[in-house]
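User: Predict the complex with farnesyl diphosphate.
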Amino acid sequence: MTTHERQAGLPDHVAIIMDGNGRWAKARGLPRSFGHHQGVGSVRDVVRAAGEVGVRYLTLFAFSSENWRRPEAEINDLFGLLKTFIRRDLAELRSRNVRVRVIGERTTLKPDILALLCEAEDSTSGNTGMTLVIAFNYGARNEITRAAKAVLDDVLSGKLAASSVCEQEIAARLDTHDMPDPDLIIRTSGEERLSNFLLWQAAYAELMFVPEYWPDFGAEQFLAALSRYSARSRRFGGLQPAAAGAET
Ligand code: FPP
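Assistant: Here is the predicted structure with farnesyl diphosphate placed in the model:
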């Protein structure tokens, strides 16, 4: 495997809302499940491309806390696809030095899927290449609420002074406590919203909405998005460097 030089202007952390599997299938007169199956191919392509180009964190929104509202058969299909992906692709992820992390609510997951997710995390925890973050049973409001409860527990038990509660203490209790905020959030399928994805972490993320349905989004589209990102100017609430210089 070739690992390319890490380019300047490359985002450290890219997060993706993989949308449009159902519409991709419908446009072809196929059941929605075909779209999800085809979407796994895009997952593989994008994971490989991101790792090769030097992205450090890639977060994929695989199942949201709101996806439980879908028909049971579709939920089972999505869970089945994730299980198959981990069983089949874990060896490749290991060989590519990818570290797997899972974010989302774990307490309501069935033991079999939880065991598989933990195996993916444990068996890759020593890897030093890209971190693939799988957002599974994930909802940002749920995550922030769990973090708020953890802060409250620590205050009540005397581990944390109420006067010490600050942004850092909340961030330290989010599922993403050990990773940088996303620099770039991509959503496929032309929809333009965040749908309860990384709401805290997205504070300064660049948002990119692309027209392709997820099964049509591969390495080429991913690299094009990175190239568009590199042309954007990020100020984090400050001024352009030139303008800041002019004022001092
Ligand atoms: C959105 O399409 C996509 C999902 C809800 C699930 C994405 C899951 C995968 C690509 C497969 C499993 C993931 C991994 C990491 C192996 P949609 O069904 O909402 O499409 P629609 O808006 O066109 O109906």
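Helices lie at 21-26, 32-53, 72-95, 111-124, 140-156, 167-171, 219-230, 241-247.
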